[in-house]
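Minutes, project check-in
Item: structure for the 519-residue chain
Input as provided by the requester:
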Amino acid sequence: MKSYDAIVIGGGHNGLVAAGLLAKAGKHVIVLEAGDRVGGGARTVEFHPGYRTSGLAHLVNRLAPEVVGELGLDPSLFAGEMAPTVVLDSETGPAILRGAYGEAIDGVSPGEAIAFGRMRAKLMMQAGILGRFLAKRPPRPGETGLGSLVDLGLAGLGLIGKGRDEARDFARMALMNVADIADEYLEDDRLKGLLAFDAVLGIHLGPRSPTSLLGLYYRLTGTALGARGGQFLPRGGMGSLAEALERAAIDHGAEIRVNAAVSRIFSAGGRIEGVALADGEKIASTLVVSAIHPVATLRRLLAPGDIDTGLSISLKNVRSKGDAAKLHLALDRVPDFAGVSSADARGRLVIARNVRHVEEAFNPAKYGEFSADPVMEITLPSLVDPSLAPPGGAVLSAVVQFAPYELREGWEVGRPKFLAAIMGALERHAPGIGASVVASELLTPVDIERRYNMPGGHWHHGELQVDQLLLNRPTFGVAGYDTPIDGLYLASAGSHPGGGISGLPGRNAARHILSRRAA
């Protein structure tokens, strides 16, 4: 039986980050990936001959600088042009946010631009307070050490330093819904619709749901191109990031095996002993880091009785049913979105006319249905990297809300209807796009679950809502990367701080493991 200092289950970006940092610290590490390639949802895929795109996430907007620095990644690999956000409107024309989340805005009145700037400054400040905790293990009651107390103190001082009114406003706003905040500051429905869309992207909430503002805070804690709120489309798709992380892990000494599905994590006396693969092979280690869904790790891979009934029930109740679909279109020409310049088409296009549009797109999802008028985020990655499509052609990638995992009529019946609704929305903003479609691929949450081994098809491995964050992520009994089994740790998006291509769950878990093993 082969033996390693550490086994990492799952070769998604968090698994690669954890493996790279553990190997850098001198551990003999193996990464076991069930698929034929590493990268998980950050892979670049060919969905039609000659047409490639990012499999799930298609924008870099929160890759942690700590990950880049600690793994020694070449920063130039993640350089690019700051992508604008273009809010489409077929009647009034687009509103265009430039810089890092609207440092400047085109297409709105001067007064509205000033109002957005005031709101942006406040949200950025508040998100910055929360952002202090993303790259750290979440504090737990009874385990708060000096470092955690210092962090909490600095966060409090940072807020108090802004003045009593700002502190009071943060306390008032933190658990509000995003629609009310948008109404407080703005008049332009396009800008309100964008805030509503961004706050609930990938989350089972509507903009008028209590606490929905937290989703926007989370979005604004992300960093790209040195700026919070920044974003760019990587050349080569998100797979270029996955490849860089794979190279870093290997360069630091990690071994990577693909087509190596783990079927069982085995332990004795409450201590990890290793894993068994689907083909029966066993690999020994006293340290196993699981970068796959936490519920799959603890309720499927462990033997019955390894965790207590209370924790098992708690994990069963983790909400992790996806609400977002991913659309890929192979086009025979570049689509012409009305009022959008060729330069701005290289950014992010959003269809969310107003708050009501987003709310009404969410409402049917509560009852297992989808809206006939969906909201979505669109990119045209082949404009940034022409190698992703044949000469003259183009690739469209879209994240579409809301697509309930448990569709009442079933996705076999509902898929063509949902695709027709999406194409109808696209046609209103890019007339003639339907006639240019060479091929399409629509991934529902059920497809995402199957293709990427994500239970429920949820990109974040669990809802990003207040009761499943910080010391409750994924649930209280296993927050902070530890589990009841000595030597078994969690490191996926289902752990703190959550989803998105940041690498922080993997990085934080590795640092925690190294600190524990050095003590």
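Outcome recorded: The chain has three domains: 2-43+238-319+461-518, 78-228, 324-452.
No further action items on this chain.
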